[in-house]
Amino acid sequence: MPITLHEDLPAYRILSDEGVMVMSPGRAAMQDIRPLRIGLLNLMPKKIQTENQFARLIGATPLQLDFQLIRMTDHESKNTGADHMEAFYRTFAEVEAAGTKFDGLIITGAPIEHLAFEDVTYWEELTRVFEWTQSHVHSTFGVCWGGMAMAWHFHGLPKHMLTEKAFGCFRHDNLAPASHYLRGFSDDVLVPVSRWTEVRQSDIDTRPALSTLIASKQTGPCLVEDAGHRALYVFNHFEYDSTTLKDEYDRDVGSGKPIEVPVNYYPEDDPSRTPTNRWRSHAHLLYGNWINEIYQTTPFDMNDIGKGQG
Hints:
Layout: E1 3-4, H1 10-18, E2 22-23, H2 25-29, E3 36-41, H3 47-58, E4 65-71, H4 82-88, E5 89-91, H5 92-98, E6 102-107, H6 123-136, E7 137-143, H7 145-155, E8 160-174, E9 188-198, H8 201-205, E10 210-216, E11 220-226, E12 231-234, H9 244-254, H10 280-297
Parallel strand pairs: 1-2, 1-4, 3-4, 3-6, 4-5, 6-7, 7-12
Antiparallel strand pairs: 8-9, 8-10, 10-11, 11-12
Helix pairs in contact: 1-3
């Protein structure tokens, strides 16, 4: 089954051209099916790129999905046009006031990892989002900084600054092959990493409510399950396009910032060559497994989401 997207959303055309099944809201309304309602709280500067990345992954699942875009209420996007934001996004305040419930919610990262969580301008509202998920969202997926922020809020799990940026494609170990979220995963997984901070396994070990599912000997924990809050935290970037690391590298080189060539990304580590995507299949597996787990466990009546859960 397809993902439901507004016909004017850029992702509608892009995903259609890629062969992903997409459906307009009007056509979806004609089907006698309750779609899974999946929200994307988009904290990234390049909103459209991020929309495409996540819609591509969840849209490949065999279920009908209603994909809804959310933004922080008082934070204005500087990199995406106001017309786009007005046409396709609701503020969290609007979502909250409407009492909207979601089967799944993705909270993206944001390029603000150098700041203490409490110094982020929208931190107070974001903590309200985290608390709201416990009564209005069946399963939440926090990505990179978004995952770190959730883990800090719910568990006091600290993030630590790195002396050098973790940047490239790193081998990760599958630590929980029996996990429903890792069905079909290989024993080791290549995952794009791009961050100046880390969470440490030694800190996770002191918090028995958290369970590490995927980790790297080089870059530490990658995917952590927080069953008590019905959440997953992924600190790396399965969703990245083939050229996302290249774009980040070229940007920093062009601006004169010190940056190393991303590890294990370009053939023979030569940035003049075209990078090869070696994580796409596991990206689809991870998000497909997440959607399937939601489908298996979410209440049929959306009004029951959050009731008696946790």
